[in-house]
Amino acid sequence: VQVVESGGGLVQPGGSLRLSCEASGYTFRSYVMSWYRQAPGKERELVAVISSDAGSTVYADSVKGRFTISRDNARNTVYLQMNSLKPEDTAVYYCNAKLKWINYWGQGTQVTVSS
After folding, report:
1. The dihedral of CA 9, 108, 42, 79: what is its sign?
2. Order of strands, edge to edge, in the sheet holding 2-6?
3. What is the pLDDT of residues 72-102, one digit of tens each?
């Protein structure tokens, strides 16, 4: 099983980034996919969740209206479009795949929002 994030980087406040998470080795379309983030000195927090059929999404209050989670089950990929980025969005962003008691995590991708 592999879960690999990409798309992180350095961006100025107000800018945008799109994160990707490509998965392999399991039945991607059966799993709920989520993005989490962890800032230095803070606990990992849930950012966004998308159901297996992409029919429903949930967002943390801090990113509502700015971030959009989506998935392409044909490509085994989940995305996080991040707009209007703020310095407080700086963190390592992790992709998670969950089915009942099974959890898979990626290695994370760094997002830094700074001028």
Report:
1. positive
2. 2-6, 17-24, 77-82, 67-72
3. 999 999 999 999 999 999 999 999 999 999 9
d(CA 26, CA 104): 10
What residue type is 69 in one-letter code?
A: I
CA distance 34 to 56: 12
Do 87 and 31 form a contact (C-beta atoms < 8 A)? no
- 28, burial (CB in 10 Å: exposed 0-12, middle 13-18, buried 19+): buried
Categorize the per-residue pLDDT at 24 as very low, low, confident or very high, splitting at 50, 70 and 90.
confident
Residue 22's closest CA among 49, 52, 46, 1?
1
Q: What b-and-e string marks burial along 91-114, b requiring 16 or more CB atoms within 10 Å of the CB? A: bbbbbbbeeeeeebebebbebebe
DSSP label at 74? Answer: T
Radius of gyration of the chain measured on its C-alpha atoms: 13
Reduce the DSSP state of residue 89 to 3 states and report it.
Answer: helix
